[in-house]
UniProtKB/TrEMBL annotation:
Source organism per UniProt: Roseibium denhamense
InterPro entries: Anticodon_Met, Met-tRNA_synth, Met-tRNA_synth_2, Methionyl/Leucyl_tRNA_Synth, MetRS_core, Rossmann-like_a/b/a_fold, tRNAsynth_Ia_anticodon-bd
Protein name: Methionine--tRNA ligase
Entry's family note: Belongs to the class-I aminoacyl-tRNA synthetase family.
Domain spans labelled Methionyl/Leucyl tRNA synthetase: 4-144, 152-359
Length: 506
């Protein structure tokens, strides 16, 4: 079974920020989840190197455009590598094979008379890299998504793709395939976009304005509109138009933020239909991160969250944890360095890491460096074991993007239950008397084995720390396909080298 997950390819007109890190980290969590189920996986992420914004960003720094693209591309790649994004393919749209394939797709559509040349007068937003209708703009005539970038007036001849002939067919596809766009709120938004007749989509830019792009195969005075070129990455990454891409494509899921629902939900499916190609399996849409108090993140307010700065404080997994845990499915979620640190200390530090340290260190000291061997189990032991097994069950099954926070929440609840169990059972007191020492060993064993189960599941979310925790427990390697099971930590087994998993951050 094959599953192909894609992230958006990000504009390189600035440094990578928390939003970019988010979609790629979530994609990585989903890849690890499916790998644990035994799927053969492909994950693509990368950068969108064409278009006017990137071209102007290079000019602003007075840099050669190729040197600029190389520099930014490396910054994005470094962030994804640092945060453990296990991509199989890093996209650069400047790649020759990609450009040839894009031109091929355009020629196919052109030959079907679905592309027309005409004059256009109107407004253009560089932020969106899109022509705007008056109804798309705010009262003072600006783009609501890019209020600080002034929209420009253009009067140009360009090439346009006809969208309207495909609108009904696309609506039908959405209705016939209930999982095609998720969550429901975004599906409804998309259906609203498709409720009215669609205007033709401008798919070219004159070279007099934009040079950074793929030349049109049928008119060398133009480059391809950056969105047409960028969307095609999803196919060119897996080798299209050569054979061999089909199985990956059949299992393709695009992850995107809500800001780019229209290009992915309207333009891309119609481009594919126009080219005579099948549609991807699924479009999973997430909301946005905003600053504390619900304020949009901006450099001038000073409420942006720099992934590298956060990683210096709470580590890679501290950030991965917050991102996995706190994104809400269909409304914006708050993020700030303080919120990340608070969550790190209270959940990873106090609830999860501390318990492992306390129990493993106590076992190490009093049971000869070994996992204590258990005696008979009580009802309380069985109750905890069932709670933990139920809590991690979701990680042994397919997790949709929108369901990740709820699954992580269950892990927190299981960790709370483990802390309560330890407080009630008080193995430290049980150890003091000879006659309760066996009971002490059982309590420690139950806790350590439950922690093994918990960290086996958490490999999907915080892989590096979970690997360390499992090494401290000296747990046998988990099998693939993975399913949560009790009693795989042998009693009497030596413990590994112990340490502090999540050192407290002030
Ligand atoms: O749109 N919260 O690139 P882009 C969550 N090149 N996610 C966020 C976010 C936030 N505050 N800000 C950005 C482009 N993102 C095109 C894409 S794809 C064929 C071409 C994430 O650099 C989210 O995934 O503007 C969003 O959709 C994407 O970055 C936009 O990245």
């Amino acid at each position: 079974m094959k599953s192909y997950i894609t992230t958006p390819i990000y504009y390189v007109n600035g440094k990578p920020h928390i939003g970019h890190a988010y979609t790629s980290i979530v994609a990585d969590i989903m890849k690890r989840n499916r790998e644990a189920l035994g799927y053969e996986m492909m994950l693509s992420t990368g950068v969108d190197e064409h278009g006017q914004k990137n071209q102007e960003a290079a000019a602003d720094l007075e840099m050669d455009v190729n040197a600029y693209l190389d520099m930014r591309c490396k910054e994005f790649k470094d962030v994804f590598d640092q945060f453990g994004v296990s991509y199989d393919y890093f996209v650069r749209t400047s790649r020759d094979g990609h450009k040839t394939a894009v031109a091929g797709m355009e020629q196919t559509i052109f030959d079907k008379d679905l592309i027309v040349k005409k004059q256009y007068t109107g407004t253009y937003c560089k932020g969106c890299e899109e022509f705007k209708k008056e109804s798309d703009l705010t009262e003072d005539g600006q783009c609501p998504l890019h209020p600080t970038m002034k929209v420009e007036t253009t009067d140009e001849t360009n090439y346009f793709l006809k969208l309207e002939p495909f609108r009904e067919k696309l609506l039908q596809h959405i209705d016939d395939n209930p999982d095609f766009v998720q969550p429901e709120a975004f599906k409804n938004e998309l259906k609203k976009m498709l409720a009215e007749p669609l205007e033709d989509l401008c798919i070219s830019r004159p070279k007099s304005r934009v040079t950074l792009g793929v030349e049109l195969p049928f008119d060398q005075d133009f480059v391809t509109y950056v969105w047409f070129d960028a969307l095609a990455n999803y196919l060119t990454n897996i080798g299209w138009p050569e054979n061999g891409y089909e199985d990956w494509w059949a299992g393709c899921e695009h992850l995107i933020g809500k800001d780019i629902l229209k290009p992915h939900g309207v333009y891309w499916p119609i481009m594919l239909m126009a080219a005579g190609l099948p549609l991807p399996k699924k479009l999973s849409v997430h909301s946005h991160w905003v600053g504390a108090g619900g304020v949009k993140m901006s450099k001038s307010i000073g409420n942006t969250v720099d992934p590298e700065e956060v990683a210096e404080k709470v580590g890679i997994d501290g950030l991965r944890w917050y991102l996995a845990r706190h994104m809400r499915a269909d409304s914006d979620s708050q993020i700030s360095v303080d919120l990340i640190i608070q969550t790190f200390n209270s959940e990873l530090g106090n609830k999860i890491g501390n318990l492992l340290s306390r129990v493993a260190k106590f076992s190490n000291k009093n049971f000869d460096g070994k996992v204590p061997a258990p005696g008979a189990l009580t009802a309380e032991d069985e109750a905890l074991r069932k709670t933990v097994l139920d809590a991690v069950a979701g990680f042994g099954a397919w997790i949709d993007m929108a369901d990740i926070p709820a699954q992580v929440q269950k892990i927190v609840e299981a960790a709370t239950a483990m802390n309560e169990y330890i407080d009630q059972q008080a193995p430290w007191s049980l150890f003091k008397n000879e006659e309760t020492r066996e009971r002490c060993a059982t309590v420690l064993y139950v806790t350590l084995d439950c922690q093994r189960v918990l960290f086996e599941a958490l490999r999907q979310v915080i892989p590096a720390s979970s690997g360390k925790a499992l090494a401290m427990l000296n747990a046998p390697s988990a099998e693939t396909p993975w399913k949560p099971e009790l009693d795989r930590l042998p009693g009497g087994n030596p413990l590994g080298e112990l340490g502090t998993l999540f050192p407290r951050v002030q």
